[in-house]
Specification:
about 150 residues; alpha+beta; Thiol Ester Dehydrase, Chain A; 7 strands; about 20% helix; about 45% strand; globular
Length: about 150
């Protein structure tokens, strides 16, 4: 089983700290699905201001985590020459539901699936869990574009 660590993920994505949210990608089925881990820590960059004394991971960062996991899944499955000098941009979020707050110190598990692709446009779905409890789910689309 292929497991990508944070360093290997950073070789696939342009994101860097503090915005590289994905810590690990595993259970990879080429261009179809994967599972990602986001270690939500008490010292994560968003904790101090969201919200003081009652920290919660912002929903927008959960969606960003979904997007990063999907981009890593896609980049890992494509020939390097296909994604080299490219960026993946979020195009739209069709559905995003936040079912339970994600409280730091936890391991957020993201289950990602590529639903379809048409040229450079991809559609994905994902579910987020903490201790097997569903925290969020979303359907979104992204496109691969040339770096400028």
């Amino acid at each position: 089983m292929t497991i990508l660590n944070k360093k290997q993920i950073s070789e696939l994505l342009p994101h860097r700290e503090p915005m590289l949210l994905i810590d690990e990608l595993y259970d990879i089925k080429k261009l179809f699905s994967a599972t990602a881990i986001v270690n939500v820590k008490k010292d994560s960059f968003f904790v101090q201001g969201h919200f003081p004394n009652q920290p919660v991971m912002p929903g927008v960062l959960i969606v960003e985590s979904f997007g990063q996991a999907a981009a890593a899944l896609t980049a890992h499955g494509l020939d390097k020459s296909t994604y080299e000098n490219k960026l993946v941009f979020l195009m739209g979020v069709e559905k995003a539901r936040f079912r339970n707050p994600v409280i730091p110190d936890c391991k957020l598990i993201l289950k990602i699936e590529a639903l379809r692709s048409h040229g450079r446009v991809w559609k994905y779905k994902g579910e987020a869990f903490v201790d097997n409890k569903k925290m969020a789910d979303a359907i979104w689309s992204a496109t691969i574009v040339d770096k400028k």
